[in-house]
Amino acid sequence: MLPTTLGPWLDYTINGLVIGNIYALLAVGLALIFGVSHLINFAHGSVYMVGAYIGWLCVTKLNLPLPITFIAVAAGCGLLGAVIERVGLRPLRNAPRIAPLLATIGLSVVLDQSAQLLFSPDPRALPTQLPTWRIAIGGGSIGALDLLIAAVGIGSAGLLYGFLRFTKLGWAVRATALDRDAAQQCGVDVDKVNRTVFAIASALGGVSGLLVGMYYNTIDPNMGFQAGLKGIVAQLIGGVGNVPGAIAGSLLLGLIESYGIALFGTSYRNLFAFVALILILVLRPNGLFARARRLPPEPLTGTFIAPSRPLVLPKWAVWTLAAAALALPLVVQQPYLLQTLGNAWLYALLALSLTLVAGTVGQVSLGHAGLLAIGAYASSLLALDAGVPVLLAVPLAGLVAAALGTALVYPAFRLRGHYVSIATLAVGEIVTLVILNWESLTRGPIGVTGIPPLSVAGKPLVSGQWVYWVPLAVLLAFAALQSRLLNSHLGRTLRAIREDDVAARSYGVDLNRYKGLAFAVAGFVAGVGGALMAHFYSYINHETFPAPVSMLALTMVILGGLGNVAGAVLGAAVLVGLPELFRAAAEYRMLIYGVVLLLLIRFRPQGLLGTV
Amino acid sequence: MLDLILRSTALVAGTLSLLAALGVVQPAFSQPADPAKEPVVLGVSGPLTGQYAQYGAQWQRGFDLALEQVNAGGGIQGRPLRVQFEDSQSDPKQTVAIARKFVADSRVVAELGDFTSAASMAASPIYQTGGLVQFGFTNSHPDFTKGGDFVWSNALNQAEEMPVLADYAVTALGLKRVALLFINNDWGRTSKDLFAKAAKQRGAEVVGAEGYLADEKDFRSALVRVRDTKPDGIVLVSYYADGAQITRQLREAGLTQPVVASGAVYSPKFLELGGTAVEGVHTTTPFFPGDPRPEVQTFVKAYTGKYGVEPDAYSSRAYDALLLLATVIRQSGTDRTAVRDGLATVKDAPSVVYGTVRFDPQTRRVDKPLSTRLVVKNGAFALWEPVAAKAAN
Q1: pLDDT tens-digit profile of A448-502?
Q2: Is CATH 3.40.50.300 what the domain over B159-285+373-392 is classified as, yes or no?
Q3: Cβ separation B224–A127 shorter than 8 A
Q4: Which residues lie below 8 Å from residue B229, measured CB to CB, with a gap of 6+?
Q5: Which of B49, B51, B255 is the mutation pick for testing A, counting most A CBs within 10 A?
Q6: I need a labelling partner for B272 at 20 to 30 A (CA). Which of A23, A82, B110, B150 fits?
Q7: Taking the domain B38-156+291-362, which CATH number applies?
């Protein structure tokens, strides 16, 4: 039902601007960091959370006045930013660019988990000391905090503009952003520039956490992830690395969401936002406010993914390992171990799929869990509603995931580098949100219950051995296929697209066709993986394959070595196995996991087995 | 290659020393030889880390208190009761592994949890085929106990809870045009449908229903939609954090209608996060610390003494579930199948949530929860009195 009068639209507009205002605080910091180090900083949301907690300590424990709280938060988070740069990122400056990206994910795990251990996972109230007057506008009102947030957002953008334009260090920052090596040759202390940028952006991120915590009167250790995601989307709409663009993009995102609610209802909010993001990316791949005259968006994957000498296992070793893996349940009967390894093989299917598109073709996808979800739902609904036998439903689900996945990502084929990642991230979110809202097909939030297990000749395969053998057999088949593919003419063509798409095109490679082919194969593999999971779980809903699963998949792929088939399997085994291995550590285990991840990236940035 | 091996070895060594430093690597204890003194173990699968960690932490407080009381009272026929809490992050791939672990561990006599439907119900087939009771004490998904005859739940049945809430909103408070905000997950969605039906039967109209995403924090635009349906009352099917957030924002948006919230908002955190905005919010709860029954008073006193705060919905449910299972095991023994049969026949198990608990052996759920009408008054939950409310209107 459309609201008919102007009154509500004024309210929706104001509400959109108010929330956009809040997104802007994070987007500015992200844009600054991206502008200089070409890095999407996934730890920024965690810094924001740390800022909220420092503010909470100042306000409720130390009873400091508000201005001092602000200074303490900015100083604390600025310092944290500098430490992140020094400890987490500087050692990786010569590593492939994908390594720092992964390091920021690891850092955010460490920060979030530390906060959870220090402050308990319970949400806490962060009362504001600002006056409580409100100005009525339209049917609603805005308060002092709304104005303060706008002032901080616009003020910090103004200060940054001045800093970049008129100070010597600001020039150095811009020079570094344009060309790091050239700046270094001109005598710019690049490390100092990076440190400064991280400190400034993190101080701003911390202040945002404080302000938003006060705004909602709630802070919790997990508040950073969702906020960071919105900040990334907002700065992409404005054009990455563009500080004023980030503010405009944030306001626009707020408006888009608010109008989405007005038109379709509250549960369509994020769906509307992510669809808008994809549209904007497709129409204006550099963001809405990118200057017309600028350098090519970013050097391509040749520098994004480092060439390295992959560790090639001799043939006999591969055969021995495969045979040993197949024979394991005959020797070891522990159902817990078999289930854990079975999970690892299922996730290895996801990693195999991702390593093909991200590693071999260079299209780093951050929404791969969406393919699992499509496969899982397709197979369950085919088996339950269409009466298709499970053994047939699983490969059919693979085909559905291949077709639907490729069609959904198709608009992003013309994008490059980071933009592909964000577009696929949006596609992943869209899949989840469509599942939630398309009730007549997917049963919406209730989920799909009573999914039949895999069975052969009427005998269900549910015991510990079968949850191990079935995924392993499927995995070995797909892994063998993918290895063959990589060594074929097709594999070389796909790698050519990764190394230099312009050169590939000039050799007559039709980029869209080959990317489509890669995504179709990847969709099939991941779809089969998701379908198997659904039949093992018996129940799925929109929360079974959430966004962090996509992150986990990417971590597996990078850890194993991009494009490396054996690496994908190893990465999945390590990352499914580690949290189980650390089980004795209870609350500490995710912290240990984060630290181990950071150490692995630090000492083996090209992945355990190297890029193929 | 050698380099890689060296580095890996260094890494493993580093990790182990880290573990040791954290004090989490425990030396293996030699098992006591006397089977009559061996602990009786209940497995718990729940979130201690990740986005649902706050609920796992509340469970743990309830469990710890219940364990103290059970073991102070002689445990299970002289054997101490233990809880083995495995962190699942409410992630299905971890709950299935935990389920295999518990099923294979002969010391575990029953399992409690997990938290989300996606995580709990993925593990149900394993508990069912393994013949280990899965006791989902917060799992309100309508199909949860359909997983098999080893899957039980004493979670509030929404088919019972929602008519009670509708009675409060429609019959007692006299609301005729109700707008509903519900969290768009299986619990919120089921509750919304049941509430709408119950409200209609009582002569009220549901003029609008807005489902919001679980991690939503901004409700300004949703509330514009609510406002434009011109309701005379607002019903929230929410947990405490989102419930507090919505109430704050609807008061800021100038909506002054009475707010009636589902029992899941019942938590001291609702008052803390909502501040003055939640003043006057109505809710019902099966568990209320002001309840004069002795078992409730013992629990509240022990809980506040141990943790310094009043118990909330999740910790009281965890406490209740553990005591219930202890009672069942005392009556039926530690055999896994006997525990299942014991649940079907248990009659007078004390409960802070239900009075006494009895299961319907067909649905494996509890019927007839208690219900107390509450209103937030002077920053605390207080019993609602119809006369006082009328005078205030």
Answers
A1: 998 999 888 778 888 878 889 999 999 999 999 999 998 898 888 888 888 888 8
A2: no
A3: no
A4: B177, B179, B207, B208
A5: B49
A6: A23
A7: 3.40.50.2300
